[in-house]
Amino acid sequence: MSSIEVDATPGVVEILRESCHDMRQPVASMFALAAAALAEPGLPHAARARLEQMVEQAEWLADLIQHSLQLAAPDAPGACGADLLRIASDVAAAECMTWPGEVRMVSQSRAVLTDVHPVLLRRMVANLVGNATRAAGPSGTVTVEVCRQQNSALLAVEDTGPGFGKIPAGLGLGLAAVSRNAIRHGGKVECGCGASGGTRVNLWLPLSASQLQAGGADSGLRDTWSTTSAISPTDSSVGRAGVG
To answer: Which residue from 45, 86, 120, 157 has the fewest beta carbons nearer than 10 Å?
Structure first.
């Protein structure tokens, strides 16, 4: 597999931060409108469930905006870590709200902890999964695997699309951002061919110090568990995917 490294452009970063500042008011309006709709008497259960999913996505957008505005270096490593497995599950569930294909979650670990800020980590995972679903197409399959190998956390995203370099122009922008942020946190991104002929992207990140001290690396099948679950976009509980 090949590694990718792309330098950040300060001017572009500043423009994006200014845009995030301007998005705060529309997001606040989304919360107010959703709250008013949820307060309507006799609201059908299906409509309530979808509104609650919309609120959850708006909350994620608000977290993303706040993270970008508050930190001088939004993608700098910090003490606030996150569970890669939990975030990957949430991202897969969110993707299935608008994508009709199949997302399969595979894991050999109950928790995969990194020292990457949870907002930044979700951005990274969402970029990879979003690229994969667009490449796979509406009838394709995307497999998201999370595991621990030695002292590293691994997220592998594989699709059934046409293969790396054969997707429409523009879909590589997220991959470049993921690679840049991975490198700044001591990790890397690798791209290659998947078993079905599509693209497989591996995101490697160091395990958190707390997990390493607790013996976080997988030591074989006796100490691991595995499950594969298809996430359906019509599932009323799809707002937060579970693995297990």
So the answer is: 45
